[in-house]
Amino acid sequence: MARFNFEGKPPLEKQEVICPLTLTQNVIAGRWKVIILWHLSQRTIRFNEFQRCLPGISKGILTRQLRELEDDGMVHREVYKEVPPKVEYSLTELGKRFIPILDAMEVWGKEFMEIKLVEHNYYISK
Questions:
Q1: Per the domain annotation, does 28 fall within a domain?
Q2: Parent domain of 61
Q3: 102-126, pLDDT tens digit by residue?
Q4: Is residue 125 part of a domain?
């Protein structure tokens, strides 16, 4: 998904189309970003741990999505000067403010899943 990259104030022709929901969508746009944020809401994670937690994501996509989240101020990247290099990711204060939204998405997702499973005559044990 396309991202807006504005330094300072956005150009006049773009100002009318930007709204808080569009900006939020822009921050979390990407197949893996919400899942990355959820994992980081649980604990600090190293890059290789992410690759194990997210089967199917390529190293390049993971790197790009983490960088975009870092650029948006949601994720902090800590590089330790060790051999081999050690890099850890955690949520920033801004990222931590997104946790209630992740929690609400989980609640809605569970409700939606139950509705869909009932429609298809599946049973979920609680």
A1: yes
A2: 12-119
A3: 999 999 999 999 888 888 876 555 5
A4: no
